[in-house]
Amino acid sequence: AQTVTQSQPEMSVQEAETVTLSCTYDTSENNYYLFWYKQPPSRQMILVIRQEAYKQQNATENRFSVNFQKAAKSFSLKISDSQLGDTAMYFCAFMKGNDMRFGAGTRLTVKP
Amino acid sequence: KAGVTQTPRYLIKTRGQQVTLSCSPISGHRSVSWYQQTPGQGLQFLFEYFSETQRNKGNFPGRFSGRQFSNSRSEMNVSTLELGDSALYLCASSLRSVTEAFFGQGTRLTVV
User: What whole-number distance in Å separates Cα of residue B75 and Cα of residue B67?
Assistant: First the structure.
Protein backbone atom coordinates (compact mmCIF):
# COMPACT_ATOMS: atom_id res chain seq x y z
CA ALA A 1 0.00 0.00 0.00
CA GLN A 2 1.15 3.49 -0.75
CA THR A 3 1.89 5.77 2.18
CA VAL A 4 2.65 9.46 2.23
CA THR A 5 4.60 11.08 5.04
CA GLN A 6 4.84 14.76 5.88
CA SER A 7 7.25 15.05 8.78
CA GLN A 8 6.62 18.73 9.56
CA PRO A 9 3.26 19.23 11.31
CA GLU A 10 3.77 23.00 11.50
CA MET A 11 6.03 25.55 9.89
CA SER A 12 6.26 29.31 9.77
CA VAL A 13 7.99 31.74 7.46
CA GLN A 14 8.38 35.49 7.22
CA GLU A 15 6.58 37.24 4.43
CA ALA A 16 8.69 37.44 1.25
CA GLU A 17 11.01 34.65 2.34
CA THR A 18 11.29 31.12 1.00
CA VAL A 19 10.07 27.96 2.70
CA THR A 20 10.31 24.28 1.80
CA LEU A 21 7.79 21.67 2.87
CA SER A 22 8.91 18.06 2.81
CA CYS A 23 7.09 14.95 1.68
CA THR A 24 8.19 11.38 1.26
CA TYR A 25 6.20 8.45 -0.02
CA ASP A 26 6.48 4.73 -0.27
CA THR A 27 5.48 2.80 -3.35
CA SER A 28 6.62 -0.01 -5.57
CA GLU A 29 4.96 1.57 -8.59
CA ASN A 30 6.93 3.20 -11.38
CA ASN A 31 4.29 5.43 -12.91
CA TYR A 32 2.20 7.65 -10.69
CA TYR A 33 1.27 11.24 -9.94
CA LEU A 34 2.20 13.46 -7.02
CA PHE A 35 0.35 16.55 -5.92
CA TRP A 36 0.52 19.37 -3.46
CA TYR A 37 -2.84 20.69 -2.30
CA LYS A 38 -3.50 23.77 -0.21
CA GLN A 39 -6.40 23.97 2.22
CA PRO A 40 -7.00 27.50 3.55
CA PRO A 41 -9.43 28.22 6.40
CA SER A 42 -12.25 28.21 3.84
CA ARG A 43 -11.69 24.40 3.79
CA GLN A 44 -11.63 24.10 0.03
CA MET A 45 -8.75 22.02 -1.25
CA ILE A 46 -6.89 23.82 -4.00
CA LEU A 47 -4.42 22.13 -6.31
CA VAL A 48 -1.06 23.88 -6.07
CA ILE A 49 1.15 21.77 -8.28
CA ARG A 50 1.27 18.39 -9.96
CA GLN A 51 4.16 16.14 -10.98
CA GLU A 52 4.06 13.09 -13.22
CA ALA A 53 6.58 10.49 -12.07
CA TYR A 54 7.79 9.76 -15.59
CA LYS A 55 8.88 13.38 -16.04
CA GLN A 56 12.35 14.16 -14.79
CA GLN A 57 11.85 17.91 -14.93
CA ASN A 58 10.57 19.43 -11.72
CA ALA A 59 7.17 21.08 -11.99
CA THR A 60 6.89 24.83 -11.43
CA GLU A 61 3.85 27.07 -11.01
CA ASN A 62 4.78 30.70 -10.49
CA ARG A 63 6.14 30.96 -6.93
CA PHE A 64 5.67 27.24 -6.29
CA SER A 65 8.15 24.61 -7.37
CA VAL A 66 8.92 21.05 -6.42
CA ASN A 67 12.08 19.05 -5.91
CA PHE A 68 11.14 15.59 -7.12
CA GLN A 69 13.67 12.89 -6.29
CA LYS A 70 12.17 9.68 -7.63
CA ALA A 71 14.87 7.33 -6.38
CA ALA A 72 14.65 8.81 -2.90
CA LYS A 73 10.83 8.94 -3.11
CA SER A 74 10.88 12.54 -2.06
CA PHE A 75 8.63 15.35 -3.25
CA SER A 76 9.25 18.67 -1.50
CA LEU A 77 7.44 21.92 -2.19
CA LYS A 78 9.27 25.23 -2.29
CA ILE A 79 7.32 28.44 -1.90
CA SER A 80 9.25 31.53 -2.90
CA ASP A 81 8.40 35.11 -1.93
CA SER A 82 5.87 33.86 0.63
CA GLN A 83 2.67 35.85 0.90
CA LEU A 84 0.17 36.15 3.74
CA GLY A 85 -2.37 34.38 1.55
CA ASP A 86 -0.16 31.30 1.50
CA THR A 87 -1.13 30.61 5.11
CA ALA A 88 -2.92 27.25 4.98
CA MET A 89 -2.63 23.53 5.48
CA TYR A 90 -0.59 21.89 2.75
CA PHE A 91 -1.16 18.29 1.81
CA CYS A 92 1.10 16.11 -0.25
CA ALA A 93 -0.74 13.42 -2.22
CA PHE A 94 0.16 10.32 -4.20
CA MET A 95 -2.05 8.96 -6.92
CA LYS A 96 -1.90 5.68 -8.82
CA GLY A 97 -4.88 4.68 -10.90
CA ASN A 98 -7.95 6.08 -9.25
CA ASP A 99 -6.72 5.92 -5.67
CA MET A 100 -5.31 9.05 -4.08
CA ARG A 101 -3.50 8.98 -0.72
CA PHE A 102 -2.74 12.06 1.32
CA GLY A 103 -0.13 12.92 3.90
CA ALA A 104 -1.12 14.25 7.31
CA GLY A 105 -0.50 17.82 6.23
CA THR A 106 1.77 20.69 7.22
CA ARG A 107 0.28 23.84 8.69
CA LEU A 108 2.12 26.79 7.22
CA THR A 109 1.88 30.24 8.75
CA VAL A 110 3.24 33.23 6.90
CA LYS A 111 4.11 36.03 9.32
CA PRO A 112 4.04 39.71 8.38
CA LYS B 1 -17.70 27.46 -14.99
CA ALA B 2 -19.21 26.57 -11.62
CA GLY B 3 -17.05 24.61 -9.21
CA VAL B 4 -17.81 21.49 -7.25
CA THR B 5 -20.87 22.04 -5.08
CA GLN B 6 -21.51 20.12 -1.91
CA THR B 7 -24.70 20.31 0.08
CA PRO B 8 -25.41 20.83 2.83
CA ARG B 9 -22.42 22.74 4.21
CA TYR B 10 -23.16 21.81 7.80
CA LEU B 11 -25.15 18.99 9.31
CA ILE B 12 -25.87 17.79 12.84
CA LYS B 13 -27.20 14.29 13.35
CA THR B 14 -27.85 11.97 16.26
CA ARG B 15 -26.16 8.63 16.78
CA GLY B 16 -28.00 5.86 15.00
CA GLN B 17 -29.47 8.09 12.34
CA GLN B 18 -28.52 8.03 8.71
CA VAL B 19 -27.37 10.88 6.52
CA THR B 20 -27.09 11.63 2.82
CA LEU B 21 -24.61 14.11 1.43
CA SER B 22 -24.72 15.47 -2.09
CA CYS B 23 -22.02 16.48 -4.54
CA SER B 24 -22.50 18.17 -7.90
CA PRO B 25 -19.31 17.97 -9.98
CA ILE B 26 -18.01 20.50 -12.42
CA SER B 27 -19.99 20.35 -15.65
CA GLY B 28 -18.52 17.69 -17.93
CA HIS B 29 -16.64 15.90 -15.17
CA ARG B 30 -17.54 12.23 -14.93
CA SER B 31 -15.37 11.13 -12.01
CA VAL B 32 -16.43 11.90 -8.45
CA SER B 33 -14.41 10.92 -5.40
CA TRP B 34 -15.29 11.19 -1.72
CA TYR B 35 -12.93 11.75 1.20
CA GLN B 36 -13.29 11.91 4.96
CA GLN B 37 -11.14 14.40 6.82
CA THR B 38 -10.69 14.18 10.60
CA PRO B 39 -8.02 15.64 12.90
CA GLY B 40 -6.93 12.17 13.97
CA GLN B 41 -6.93 10.25 10.70
CA GLY B 42 -6.34 13.06 8.23
CA LEU B 43 -7.70 12.73 4.72
CA GLN B 44 -8.93 9.27 3.86
CA PHE B 45 -10.28 8.06 0.54
CA LEU B 46 -13.81 6.70 0.69
CA PHE B 47 -14.72 5.79 -2.90
CA GLU B 48 -14.69 6.94 -6.48
CA TYR B 49 -17.44 6.82 -9.07
CA PHE B 50 -17.15 7.11 -12.80
CA SER B 51 -20.13 6.96 -15.16
CA GLU B 52 -22.42 5.66 -12.40
CA THR B 53 -20.05 2.83 -11.47
CA GLN B 54 -17.95 2.56 -8.36
CA ARG B 55 -14.38 2.13 -9.58
CA ASN B 56 -12.46 2.18 -6.36
CA LYS B 57 -13.21 1.91 -2.68
CA GLY B 58 -11.26 2.79 0.42
CA ASN B 59 -11.14 0.90 3.67
CA PHE B 60 -14.40 1.96 5.28
CA PRO B 61 -17.22 -0.15 6.73
CA GLY B 62 -20.31 -0.98 4.72
CA ARG B 63 -22.24 1.74 6.55
CA PHE B 64 -20.63 4.11 4.07
CA SER B 65 -22.10 3.86 0.61
CA GLY B 66 -22.50 6.02 -2.41
CA ARG B 67 -23.97 6.29 -5.83
CA GLN B 68 -23.68 8.38 -8.94
CA PHE B 69 -26.49 9.48 -11.19
CA SER B 70 -26.56 9.79 -14.95
CA ASN B 71 -25.85 13.52 -14.69
CA SER B 72 -22.68 12.68 -12.69
CA ARG B 73 -24.07 14.07 -9.45
CA SER B 74 -23.14 11.85 -6.56
CA GLU B 75 -24.54 11.10 -3.14
CA MET B 76 -22.88 9.56 -0.16
CA ASN B 77 -24.87 7.81 2.53
CA VAL B 78 -23.83 6.88 6.03
CA SER B 79 -26.18 4.66 7.99
CA THR B 80 -26.30 4.02 11.74
CA LEU B 81 -24.16 7.05 12.51
CA GLU B 82 -21.47 6.83 15.17
CA LEU B 83 -19.76 9.65 17.04
CA GLY B 84 -16.56 8.84 15.16
CA ASP B 85 -18.24 9.67 11.87
CA SER B 86 -18.04 13.36 12.76
CA ALA B 87 -15.80 14.79 10.07
CA LEU B 88 -15.46 17.03 7.08
CA TYR B 89 -16.56 15.11 4.00
CA LEU B 90 -14.95 16.33 0.81
CA CYS B 91 -15.99 15.59 -2.71
CA ALA B 92 -13.73 15.99 -5.72
CA SER B 93 -14.49 15.81 -9.41
CA SER B 94 -12.28 15.28 -12.41
CA LEU B 95 -12.72 14.91 -16.13
CA ARG B 96 -11.74 11.27 -16.43
CA SER B 97 -9.39 9.80 -13.92
CA VAL B 98 -8.07 11.56 -10.87
CA THR B 99 -5.21 13.31 -12.61
CA GLU B 100 -6.45 16.69 -11.55
CA ALA B 101 -9.14 16.72 -8.95
CA PHE B 102 -11.16 19.78 -8.06
CA PHE B 103 -12.56 19.80 -4.57
CA GLY B 104 -15.74 21.20 -3.13
CA GLN B 105 -15.86 23.06 0.16
CA GLY B 106 -17.03 20.01 2.01
CA THR B 107 -19.87 19.09 4.34
CA ARG B 108 -19.13 19.35 8.03
CA LEU B 109 -21.00 16.49 9.73
CA THR B 110 -21.34 16.46 13.49
CA VAL B 111 -22.78 13.40 15.19
CA VAL B 112 -24.06 13.96 18.73
Answer: 6
Structure confidence at residue A97 (pLDDT): 73
Separation between Cα atoms, residue B89 and residue B34, nearest integer Å: 7
What is the residue type of B65? S
CB B37 within 8 A of CB B46: no
What own/partner pairs with CB < 8 Å and gap ≥ 24 does B25-28 have? B25/B72, B25/B73, B25/B74, B25/B91, B25/B93, B26/B1, B26/B2, B26/B93, B26/B102, B27/B1, B27/B2, B28/B95
Residue pLDDT, tens place only, B58-107: 889 999 999 999 999 999 999 999 999 999 999 999 886 556 788 999 99
Q: Does A100 sit within 8 Å of B100, measured CB to CB?
A: no
CA distance A103 to chain B (A): 8
Give the number of beta-carbon pairs within 8 Å between A and B: 51
Shortest distance between the Cα of B32 and any Cα of chain A, in A, equals 10
Per the prediction, chain B carries an average pLDDT of 92
Per-residue pLDDT at B9: 95
**Cis peptide, bond prior to residue A112, ω within 30 of zero:** no
Ramachandran category for residue B102: left, alpha or beta (phi over 0 → left; psi -120 to 50 → alpha): beta
Coil/strand/helix, residue A84: helix
Q: How many angstroms separate the CA atoms of A89 and A105, rounded?
A: 6
